[in-house]
Amino acid sequence: MRILLSTILLLLIIFIGSVSADEINSSNNVEPHIVKMNDYSYRAYYYDRSTSVMTNYFEIYHKGRKVYSEQIKDGDFSIVERNSDILSEDSRLPLSGKDINGDGIPKFVLERYVGGAKFKGRYSYTIYSLGKKVKKFATLEGDYSPMYFVDLDGDGRYEVIGHDWVFAYFFGTSPHPVVILKWQADEGTISHT
User: Does residue 1 belong to any structural domain of this protein?
Assistant: First the structure.
């Protein structure tokens, strides 16, 4: 009996070790969230942590070949899908695959939110460049409130509107003035106005 149980356990270990990531996804009913961005596509995988040991992650494909992947260890994350060139009024992010700073290279903005009670939840925004190589272009910290990407002056470059939380916890009301970040024309970097 002990040999039979050992054999079954060994076969089970061999079987589990041979399961691919795709089989794990299908066994946990995990379907990737796919967004098309010109020649690129974005695939996000979200796992129910109570049934899986894998963390959430996303991949970027260029013409069908995986060129980038990143794990997201905590919090929710999302990008905007290219369903049309018109976004709803409450949309905060630019369309994925759009040139948002005028350098001719498409970008996408990944919004991350790590939840919690008041003054515990945090927003951050990582901008990825989809040039010859996918790379992180910039990361903006929204802290306790979301940020909005809007072309305010119609020049094709998106300004970023947020709040400055430097005085959080200093006063009873925690003043948080509005700030507008604007791209620098000569460097493609972003600064506040």
Answer: no
Range of the domain at 184: 19-192
- Write the pLDDT tens digit of every residue in 16-74: 433 334 444 444 456 778 888 888 988 888 776 565 555 688 899 999 999 999 888 77
Exposure string of 98-118, with b = 16+ CB inside 10 Å and e = fewer, is bbbbeeeebbbbbbbbeeeee
Asked if residue 92 belongs to a domain, the reply is yes
Q: Higher pLDDT residue, 164 or 10?
A: 164
The angle at the Cα of 125, spanning 119 to 130, to the nearest 5 degrees, equals 170
Share of the chain above pLDDT 90, in %: 20
In tens, the pLDDT along 149-159 reads 999 989 889 99
**Predicted TM-score (pTM) of this structure:** 0.72
How many distinct structural domains can be found in the chain? 1
**Residue 28 covered by a domain:** yes
- Is residue 35 domain-resident? yes
Judge whether 44 and 25 are in contact, CB under 8 Å.
Answer: no
Tokens 């600064």 -> residue: 191
